[in-house]
Design a protein that fits this description.
Length: 302
Amino acid sequence: MTLVPGTIRPPRRLDDVPGWFPVLDQVLFEWFLDRQETAGTRGDLLEVGVYMGKSAIFLGRHGQDGENFTVCDLFEGDALDDANQAESTKSYSALTQQVFEENYLAFHDTLPRVLKGPSSIVPDKVDPASCRFVHIDASHLYEHVRDDIGAAREALLPGGIVVLDDFRSEHTPGVSVAVWEAVLTRGLRPICLSTQKLYGTWEDPGPVQDELLAMVRGREDCNLSIQQAAGHRIVRLKSKKGMQAPPFPPSRFAHRAVEVAPEPATAKAASRGRSSTRARRFAADLLPPILTRAIRNGLSRS
Ligand SMILES: C[S@@+](CC[C@H](N)C(=O)[O-])C[C@H]1O[C@@H](n2cnc3c(N)ncnc32)[C@H](O)[C@@H]1O
């Protein structure tokens, strides 16, 4: 089992897997995928940009019999250009394909089809009109995201859902430009926005939006606002404090003692690492999961 500094290994719950997959997006993924499954929609799943597997592990539970799940990531490989390489070195230096696969197999019996390399390989590997759900969460550079959106459009079946991450983060203007360009000039229709992701389709979004609005209005843990922009109905969602993620089964290691990899070796980081490691071990081994999670979240914010 590969140890990544500061992370709980092996993961016992989805929350133990490092990544960026907010609770509201977990609720929305579950809703969009369940809706397709209930309607009898069949098609493959695709995620571009998996990091250590948090959203991929979640998506992997939705593969129905006969459907394929494909993921693509650079992992520890080189990017094709300096800007993408700089982004990878800065933000994803602990990532390897092995860590992703170990995390994934903690929750699932088999791996998805793993494409190691830049997302530009996706169109050659994924059949046109084969997917019902595509999550784009890879490079933040305009040219890459523009092409990833093009690949998603090609890969999706009619009525398929695309989810575009980081479409409005302060540090990712290239994603914003590519996403809104696709809305204004390439036929992408927004279904809804979460804080981090835009959910869209290349079909009429009206029916799915109406169902989504009914679902959200029935919940008390989600703020809703509706605006019009350039002829699009924009449904904006924001979680209220206390929103719970959909239940997700624990990993096969749920009852095993955890290892916490040491933090990096600067003196300050090392001492912070030691105390947080001790607290995490104590929390993981002795306390009920809800308290463990609270302590872990507190430590990772500090
Ligand atoms: C924000 S992370 C993905 C987060 C993940 N979906 C989660 O739930 O935590 C972005 C990922 O995209 C990968 N990536 C960056 N540039 C890429 C590219 N050009 N092609 C494929 N993957 C890329 C990185 O290696 C990293 O794992």
